[in-house]
Amino acid sequence: MAGITRNPPAPPVDPAILAAFREAATATISDNLDRLPGAVGLRPFHRGGRLLGTALTVQVRAGDNLAIHQALEEARPGDVLMVDGGGDASRALVGDIMKAIAESRGVAGFVIDGAIRDVAAFAASDFPCYARAAIHRGPYKVGPGTINGPVSVGGWIVNPGDVVVGDADGVVTFPPALAPTLIEAVRAQDAREAEALRMIREGRYDGRYARSPG
User: Fold this and answer.
1) Are 147 and 58 in contact (CB under 8 A)?
2) Distances in Å between the alpha carbon of 176 and those of 16, 46, 78, 125?
3) Residue 214: pLDDT above 70?
4) Residue 187: which H helix or E strand, with range?
5) What is the Cβ-side half-sphere exposure of residue 188, based on CA atoms within 13 angstroms?
6) In order of start, what are the domains of the chain with their CATH numbers?
7) Residue 6: is its pLDDT beyond 80?
């Protein structure tokens, strides 16, 4: 069995920051992160509901989930397991049992750059789960892996303690330090879009939104 590297956990994200982004759309957040991609190639497998929390990052060998099991042992309420599985879809990294463990510990959701299984259990649940694929084949449990280090999830670098937001369009993450300016930009764009939609409904739209910056 190969070793698992454990780094100290990042501080939890301030609840006030999470509250500010509770209704923010991932598309709008992404637009105001210079339209950088966020985690791409992943899709939601759960029934519905938003994802919001603090990144607990995990890097695993392709098809091996030992580090995920160990990360769940130290997960805090509100943590989101951001798993760098290298995009490998040959074996499932999580399923119904790990979902139940995560829920019992208050984990906010899974973001898996790899495969999952027990899709029906996720589809019947509001526990957020984003992944690249689904497959019935189970994982190895021999390691190695790393907990709380920088990871690449869907081609996007995620650091421990980043804010994680997910909705039907996908997942974005950002450092908490960006939150004050980012939420202002998000709210400003929401206001512009609401005004554009109102003008469209009233037959008065003149294309100004398409010409606006951002």
Assistant:
1) yes
2) 11, 26, 15, 28
3) no
4) helix 179-201
5) 11
6) 4-176 (3.50.30.40)
7) yes
